[in-house]
Amino acid sequence: MARIDEMRLMAKMARMYYTQGLRQTEICERLNVHQSTVSRVLKRAEREGIVRVTVSLPSGTHTEVEDALQARYGLDEAVVVEDSESGALAAANAGLRHVVTVSSFTGGDPFPAATLVVSDLGEPGAPAELRAGLDVRTDGVVDVASLSRMLDEAPAPG
Hints:
By secondary structure, this protein is mainly alpha-helical. It has six helices and three strands; from the N terminus they run H-H-H-H-H-E-E-E-H. It has two domains: about 45 residues, Orthogonal Bundle (Arc Repressor Mutant, subunit A), CATH 1.10.10.60; about 90 residues, no CATH class.
């Protein structure tokens, strides 16, 4: 098959699948090809740049940070919210214990639903300032052991 014909077939199948919402079996029937051909052509269309997947995250979602936290600390679930009272309240309403690290914009906010409010997570020689909540810092640092104590000692909100 000539290159232009291959590109046309990839574009046609990609349009049918992604734009028109047809299932692969429907494409097979319409074009009289095997399902493995449809699957292979759709994958190739992605590799060739005919199909590009874009995920548009809603404002205030931080799934990349959540994934990194889960991977780094072996968590089943991590939820990262903006450091605003409404974000902290949303976490509390979801029954989540949560740590707030304030910013220059939110340093004066009270965060009454937070389990722990600190200036930052701290590091050796530069301890985090406890603003409110359960003090679980280890030598002034909020680390994995601190977070484990927080989960053990603090009741879930709500």
